[in-house]
Amino acid sequence: MKLLEDIREVLKALKHRKPSAIYCPRCAGQKIHLSSSFDYWLTPRKYFCEDCGYLGQVVMELEKEED
Question: How many other β-carbons are positioned within 10 Å of the β-carbon of residue 31?
């Protein structure tokens, strides 16, 4: 039962967290965005980096650590 409670807490925290900054996995650039407006609701998300031309589904996220 403890495991189920822990899972609920994790899911609740994910639901209410603020969006984190995303970075390109190839060049670590911040000029990365969805490649198309359809990528969020109709097809899997694909990101495009303006700095290096990366096109893919993987991005890096940076979250601030809490004290």
Answer: 12
pLDDT in tens, 11-39: 777 666 666 789 999 999 999 988 887 76
Distance (Å, whole) CA 34 – CA 56 = 9
Distance (Å, whole) CA 67 – CA 49: 32
Characterize 3-29 residue by residue with b for buried, 16 or more Cβ atoms within 10 angstroms of its Cβ, and e for exposed: eeeeeeeeeeeeeeeeeeeebbbbeee
- The number of beta carbons lying within 10 Å of the beta carbon of residue 55 is 11
Output the pTM of the full model: 0.63
